[in-house]
Amino acid sequence: MEHFELNELKQHAANLALIVDDRERRIAGLDQAIAERDGQIASLNHAVAERGGQIASLNQAIAERDGQIAGLKQATSERDGQVASLNKAELERDGQLVLLSQTVAGRDQEIAALRNSTSWRITKPLRFVSGLLRGKRDQLRVVRARGLKRAISLVKRPDMAVAQELDQLPNGFDPALYLKLNPDVADAGGDPTIHYLHHGRREGRVFSVPDLCFDHDLNVDRETVLLVSHEASRTGAPVLSLNLVHGLVGRYNVIVLLLVGGPLSDAFRLAGAAVMTSSNLRRNPVLAQLIVGQLCARFHFKFALVNSIESRVVLPALGEYFVPAISLVHEFASYIRPRGAFREALFWSGEVVFSANVTMENALAEYPDLGDRSAHILPQGRCLLPLGEFNEEQMQAERERIRRLIRPKDIAENSVIVLGAGSVELRKGVDLFIECAARVVRTPEGNRYRFVWIGKGYDPDNDIGYSVYLADQIRRAGLQEHVFFVDETNAIEVAYEEADLFLLSSRLDPLPNVAIDAMAHGVPVLCFNKTTGIADFLIESGLRNHCVAEYLDSADMAEKIVALAAQVLRESVADRCREASIAYFSMKEYIARLEVLAQGACDRTRQEKADTQVILGSGLFRRDFSPPRRQAQTIEAEVREYVRAWASGISRRKPLPGFHPGVYLEQHGLVNQGADPFADYLRAGRPAGPWDNPVIVAGDTKGTDLPANQRVALHVHVYYPDLLPEIMTRLSRNRICPDLFVSITDEKARESVVSELKNYKGQVVDIQLVPNRGRDIGPFFTAFGQRIVANYDFIGHIHTKKSADLKDATVGQSWYRFLLENLLGGESGAMADRILANMKGDTSIGMVFPDDPHVVGWSDNRAFADILAVRMGLENLPDNFVFPVGTMFWATSSALLPLMNLKLDWDDYPDEPLPYDGSSLHAIERLFSLSLSANNLRSVTTNVIGLTR
């Protein structure tokens, strides 16, 4: 038993020994790990010591860099001083250059006078020989090539040739007038006499104003009217002009001014009008002004009828001389070139009369801004053509010839004659006429149809622009026995007598006389919808189903032609066409309504003349602000144009900064009804009201009390990084250094933007990449808005602007410069300082923006604004108001709250591309200033003297 326990104890002791050994090994391992950790800690301590040394070195380097920066700042300050000195020296040099330029100009005049003198020409050979003796290379080269005698003769020849050619100058040649009538020659410089002799004579240049020669005695007891026709051809508008003369000569003296003569010229005289023709007038506004001036000096016109947009060249001159002008518009604005010509014509017209609704709709579609221009739709009366120079026997022969061509004796008795008429051109749709013929001929009884087109211009041998394709179309469609062309004729009435149907295939044709004449002869007229005023007339007369095919739908047209081939239906429709057209197209009624319109135009023109005189007499019209920048005009012409703009409703502008005529008109009303709002304001003694807006003018900002930089934020949206340097340069002209918040839409632009901003004296708080949504407004509201409004008192909003949607890039550049100069400064000095000082000193100012000379209203943005206004609690939005045109401004944070509280997100902004006008962003642009009333704040505008757009 004891032995067993002893063995057990020995075993237990052995186990304990093993455990002790294991524990000692583990303790040894721990000691080794602790030693390794101590080694690591020692290494770390060593590394920390090294990093401390590095940090000390970095601090030393930073201290050195700070020293360098201080040195650079000092160098920059010294450089700024040098730049200021250089600028001063440059100004002094500019003054010296002006004096030098004046001296040189005077010397040039002396040299020019000397070279035009007889002594200069006589001594020219001697100067040549003198130069030869001095060894001048040019003279030596001529002598070596030609010999001495020949060289001297060459020197003499030009002066001798000019002297001989001077005898060939036409009587009355005036060099100064030649330059005025040919501005391109004046722009090129050079001698007008030499230009005319060497070039102008051959080019047929205008050199004088034709004498006013009339072979017609005027009745002193009658008023005199002027009728302007672009030509005297036997076509639509000139024929209407002739019929107007017939209707007016019984009550007025009628002076007819033809811009181009033609076969109807004698007919105007025979009708009793005094006629003047000036073939150079149509495309020469200067000549038009001179001729109209002569006419107005000789005759006191009651009014003028300007027939056709093609006669528009006389309209500005008639406006200058206060002659009431009624423009008769037959053309579609979409094909009038150059663009803008249509708008200018309507601008200078006292009344505008469209011959059909389709032409007025087209004008508004092409020029939406014409919506405020009052206009009338008057269908012209039926026009009668003179017989021309044929005697009765010749006319009878012509009638028989046309009759045989249209309905030859050998054609079937049941043949259907479909007539078309007009000049052979694309607008008249002759190809559509042929296409309809092809469809009709393919019908079961197609062989009995004969399509005849009467008019000038079909010449497949020479006209490769249109006729050659028409001939090919006829051949390929197999229509040689069904489609025929007949040249224009004086016996067109015979064609109506022989025709069964008249197909007006025109693509664009307002109210063609041939269609009116055909209906008057009892011929049913068919046409395409939306191409002519005849379609409107037929629809109103209940003939749509029979006579009006869908727009350029030849299949629909062919069906209608085949249906009307049935005699009973054709005769019924013919009677309805004749009765309706006679009642509708009355020349007597047309002229009577024109006279009523003319009387109203006379009254308004007298008012415009009185208003112009009042504005001129006030001395308040700002020539550096109101007129658009273009060729220099007299102040009389500028004020006349200003008054005409408000009378016509086209291109309205403000007369001076701080006054809005539209607000006066809307909220004050006119003392004299029909007067110009500004002239009425002046007559009323310049009453105070919301139409008067305070203006901050550029000037000295020294000593102004500016807000602290940290209370001013400026948001800059950089879509065009290349324009950022100009913003920063202008901002640096100011003492104020606002905190910058910059938005970019392309990450690639970040580097250049950062580089441009690195030298900014203030703080660049954030540069943020934003989606390309909401233009500049989206980043302002959604990216930075809440943050800026919460932390700043004064907030600016600027963006890089190119106006890429404008075709003329210079317009956008001028606008951008106008905005930046007014809001940041530059040549005008420190405008941002001046604006912020005013805002700090007057707590009623909520927003400041440039006073734009254009009068801009809602246009297509009212519907968007109404929706937003409801959300903002705004009621009764006015029609006339001022707002930051271009969306750049300075504002207080409280002024922006109504719009900021909309909490617009990126999805609230419309997708690109945006239209030039008509979007929620354009509505917000207008609501910036209108929302100020919610917080009893007001807007103030800026003006830089001498700067406009």
TrEMBL record:
<dbReference type="Pfam" id="PF13692">
    <property type="entry name" value="Glyco_trans_1_4"/>
</dbReference>
<protein>
    <submittedName>
        <fullName>Rhamnan synthesis F family protein</fullName>
    </submittedName>
</protein>
<dbReference type="InterPro" id="IPR007739">
    <property type="entry name" value="RgpF"/>
</dbReference>
<keyword id="KW-0808">Transferase</keyword>
<dbReference type="Pfam" id="PF05045">
    <property type="entry name" value="RgpF"/>
</dbReference>
<keyword id="KW-0328">Glycosyltransferase</keyword>
